[in-house]
Amino acid sequence: MQARDFHLDARPLLDAFQLHLGENSPGICVGLVELLPEAVYCCDPTGRITVYNSAASDLWGRAPGPGKAIFCGSFKLLFADGTPLNHDKCPTCLALRRGRDVGSVEAMLERPDGTRRNIVMHPRLVRDRDGRVVGAVNVLIDLTERKKLESKLAGESQRKDEFLALLAQSFAIRLHPSVLQSNCSTGGRMPRKR
């Protein structure tokens, strides 16, 4: 799956907040993040999570305390194939370390109860008016139900293909010249066993 790429330039948003609400209004940012329907969290430049919404804590299966989680709030991260992915190698960390966006990445997260969720991560750097990296924001899209449906459809497609192959084989046998000749000589009835 190729995730849709998008660019986040938070400078106009930061300018609007500072112009209308003043420099000391972090509560508005928390309120805006909470309004978003998908899992969203923000990190400072060191990777410490500073804010996340309830959709993120629901997806993670936990609510890490402010500043306690680094780079991601999930219990464990895994590549899409199930290989473990250390938090210090996750896309948010890589973006912060490299100073550039790394694109969207499909992965899995594991909750404290052991359940896993398929996700696509969209980490983006947040820059101040001077272009300095001041943190990162990551949007997590839960693909679990979609993956289940894709798997179910793939299974149904395989069963359909097997049925059609069996049907084609059945027609091929019935149309084979020796079977046709036998059907003609017996009037379409199966010959009696002796």
From TrEMBL:
UniProt-recorded name of the protein: PAC domain-containing protein
Organism: Pararobbsia alpina
Domain PAC residue range list: 103-155
InterPro entries per the UniProt record, alphabetical: PAS, PAS-assoc_C, PAS-like_dom_sf
Pfam families according to UniProt: PAS_9
Transmembrane segments: none
NCBIfam families assigned to the protein according to its UniProt record, in alphabetical order: sensory_box
Coiled coil residues, start to end: none
PROSITE patterns, alphabetized: PAC
Domain of life according to the entry: Bacteria
